[in-house]
Amino acid sequence: MRERTIDLSGDVGERPEALVDGREQAFMQHLSSVSIACGGHAGDGATMRNVARTARMLGCAIGAHPSYPDRAGFGRRSMSLATPELVATLREQIGALSRIVDEEGLRLSYV
Questions:
Q1: Ramachandran area for residue 36 (φ above 0: left; ψ -120 to 50: alpha; else beta)
Q2: By the 8 A CB rule, do 33 and 65 touch?
Q3: What distance, in Å, lies between the first and last C-alpha atoms of the chain?
Q4: Alpha-helical segments (H) within 1-111
Q5: Residue 77: phi, psi to the nearest 5?
Q6: Which phi and psi (to 5°) does residue 42 adopt?
Q7: Is 31 in contact with 9 (CB distance < 8 Å)?
Q8: Which residues are CB-neighbours of 9 under 8 A, at least 6 positions away?
Q9: Which are the contacts of 51, defined by CB distance < 8 A and separation ≥ 6?
């Protein structure tokens, strides 16, 4: 019989205060993959870096969690973006996390 595994992923890096008080790490301990907010709806460079370091410590795969550039609406409002604008914001967000992950000697596994 073949052993089966489940990759349990969660969205992280959305609330910097959860890193400070330990809630983010407690949540991440139950995950095998983490989707890190890339600054569109939440997150910033320092938060992305801290979450990436925590992911390394816990052995989690790292993915990018881009969104509409809508911090006020937490990325939940539909936005009518022209294709070039959408591509630009996705490249910017994914690129920001990718650079941080590279600097930390880690690998971006998925988007």
A1: beta
A2: no
A3: 32
A4: 16-20, 23-28, 45-58, 83-103
A5: -90, 135
A6: -165, 170
A7: yes
A8: 31, 32, 33, 34, 35, 63
A9: 12, 13, 19, 24, 28, 34, 36
Q: What is the pLDDT of residues 3-60, one digit of tens each?
A: 878 899 999 999 888 888 999 999 999 999 999 999 988 999 999 999 999 999 999 9
DSSP state string for 95-108: HHHHHHHHHTT--E
Residues 57, 64: Cα–Cα separation, whole Å: 18
Q: Which residue has the tokens 């009518």?
A: 80
C-alpha neighbours within 13 Å on the C-beta side of residue 40:
25
CA–CA dist 28, 34 (Å, integer): 7
Measure the CA–CA gap between 8 and 32, rounded to whole angstroms. 5
User: How far is residue 78's CA from residue 90's CA, in Å, rounded to a whole number?
Assistant: 15
- Residue 65 phi, psi dihedral angles, 5° rounding: -120, 75
0.70 surpassed by pTM:
yes
Element (H, E) at 62: strand 61-65
